[in-house]
Design goal:
By secondary structure, this protein is α/β, with parallel strands linked by helices. It folds into 2 domains: about 120 residues, Ribose 5-phosphate Isomerase B, Chain: A, CATH 3.40.1400.10; about 35 residues, no CATH class. About 50% of the residues lie in helices and about 15% in strands. It contains 6 helices and 5 strands; from the N terminus they run E-H-E-H-E-H-E-H-E-H-H. A 5-stranded parallel sheet has the order 2-1-3-5-4, sandwiched between helices. Helix 1 links the parallel strand 1 and strand 2. The termini are far apart.
């Protein structure tokens, strides 16, 4: 497993907590302060390009980095504030980036959430009776990405 992480100044405490816990990742913001939109862009791009399997993003609320990272195709960034949502974001949505807020989530909770996130596999259904629902829903979301990209490009061209 290859992972990347980054944080703006308000998320550094959570990022540093994960690094001390032995989570093996590339620290994008190891030696520099980066604005939330830049770190969200860099991690989102790296995941979209397939350079890493997972990403971790941290800013004040987690929302800013989440919004930017999710602009990239193939990125499923989950903004989470609990172990349960971190687990379900992997199990149900096959999220590949976990975003957290340094002013919302404690370092203790961040460690637990990160462990739950990387140890949870994508599920193939909610129950034995419906084993393929989540897989087909995930594929449907993937199939929407080119249409969303085209729509966004057409809107951009109209506004120019």
């Amino acid at each position: 497993m290859k992972a990347i992480l980054g944080a703006d100044p308000l998320g550094i405490t959570l990022k540093d907590t994960l690094l001390r816990e032995g989570v093996e990742v590339y620290d994008l913001t190891e030696d520099r302060e980066v604005d939330y939109y830049s770190v969200g862009f860099e991690v989102g791009k790296a995941i979209s390009e397939g350079q890493y399997d997972y990403g971790f993003l941290f800013c004040g609320t987690g929302m800013g980095v989440n919004l930017v990272a999710n602009k990239f195709n193939g990125v499923y960034c989950a903004l989470c504030e609990s172990i349960e949502t971190a687990t379900l974001s992997r199990k149900i949505n096959n999220a590949n980036i976990l975003a957290m807020g340094g002013i919302v989530v404690t370092p203790y909770m961040a460690k637990k959430m990160a462990r739950a996130f990387i140890s949870t596999e994508f599920s193939y259904g909610f129950s034995e009776a419906d084993p393929e629902f989540l897989q087909s829903a995930y594929k449907a979301v993937q199939n929407l990405e080119p249409d969303i990209l085209t729509f966004n490009q057409e809107r951009k061209n109209k506004s120019i």
